[in-house]
């Protein structure tokens, strides 16, 4: 074979080997790029999922805080309504015994029962919303209305018998201090429960 042709043949073989290597490198580079893209995409997807879970958790926590806050405020507001009614009852208990006083006390007792039902409902909502410390304080506040009802029932019983007993008024008025103390305890428990964690 003439020397020029031999060189040309080697050159074509060299070109063929170079093409194979180029294709092999391109395939490896392309595969690496695809793999890197897949890993990056998977990492991005996982990061997005984690970020979405964190955002959803924050939203749940904020909704819980807001629903608790609304429940606490409802109970506090209802307690103040009850307090105003109790002052009104105390003023009537100070009046001298008469059929008008007895009739007024009967009407006030009906209102007291209705207001108590509202406090009980509010306390139950707090019990559902939690936490246990606020629920316990709400229950104690609800129970602090009991002595008022007992003194009112006693006063009505005495009025029906035409026996007006000043101890009814004393017992009724003595219930105010524990009632307001129970409200203060609830407010403190609600404040502690409402602090961000």
Indicate the topology:
Blueprint: H1 3-93, H2 99-129, H3 132-143, H4 146-160, H5 166-174, H6 176-194
General description of the model:
This is Secreted protein. The chain crosses the membrane at residues 20-39. The structure is a single chain. This protein has 197 residues and is mostly helical. The chain has a domain at 62-194: Up-down Bundle (A middle domain of Talin 1). Helix content is 90%, strand content 0%. The protein has 6 helices and no strands. The chain has helices spanning 3-93, 99-129, 132-143, 146-160, 166-174, 176-194.
Helix/strand order, N-terminal first: HHHHHH
Number of strands: 0
**CATH homologous superfamily of the domain at 62-194 - what is it?**
Talin, central domain
How many individual helices?
6
What is the strand content? under 5%
CATH topology of the domain at 62-194: A middle domain of Talin 1
| Main beta sheet | none
Overall shape = rod-shaped
- As a whole number of angstroms, the C-alpha radius of gyration is 40 Å
| Helix proportion range | over 70%
| Low-pLDDT segments, ≥5 res | none
Task: For the record, give the distance between the C-alpha atoms at the N and C termini, rounded to a whole number.
Answer: 90 Å
- CATH class of the domain at 62-194 reads Mainly Alpha
Class per helix and strand makeup:
mainly alpha
Average pLDDT confidence is 83
The second-level CATH architecture of the domain at 62-194 is: Up-down Bundle
Protein name: Secreted protein
Keywords: Membrane, Transmembrane, Transmembrane helix
Transmembrane segments: 20-39
Organism: Streptomyces kronopolitis
């Amino acid at each position: 074979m003439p020397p020029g042709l031999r060189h040309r043949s080697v050159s074509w073989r060299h070109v063929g080997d170079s093409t194979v290597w180029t294709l092999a490198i391109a395939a490896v580079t392309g595969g690496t790029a695809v793999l890197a893209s897949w890993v990056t995409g998977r990492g991005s997807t996982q990061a997005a999922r984690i970020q979405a879970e964190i955002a959803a958790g924050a939203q749940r926590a904020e909704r819980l805080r807001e629903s608790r806050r609304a429940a606490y405020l409802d109970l506090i507001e209802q307690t103040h309504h009850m307090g105003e009614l109790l002052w009104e009852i105390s003023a009537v208990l100070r009046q001298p015994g008469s059929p008008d006083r007895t009739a007024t006390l009967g009407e006030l007792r009906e209102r007291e029962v209705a207001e108590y039902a509202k406090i009980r409902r509010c306390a139950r909502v707090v019990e559902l919303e939690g936490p246990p410390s606020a629920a316990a304080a709400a229950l104690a506040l609800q129970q602090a209305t009991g002595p008022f009802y007992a003194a009112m029932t006693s006063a009505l019983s005495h009025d029906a018998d035409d026996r007006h007993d000043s101890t009814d008024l004393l017992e009724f008025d003595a219930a105010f201090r524990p009632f307001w103390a129970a409200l203060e305890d609830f407010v403190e428990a609600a404040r502690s429960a409402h602090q961000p964690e």
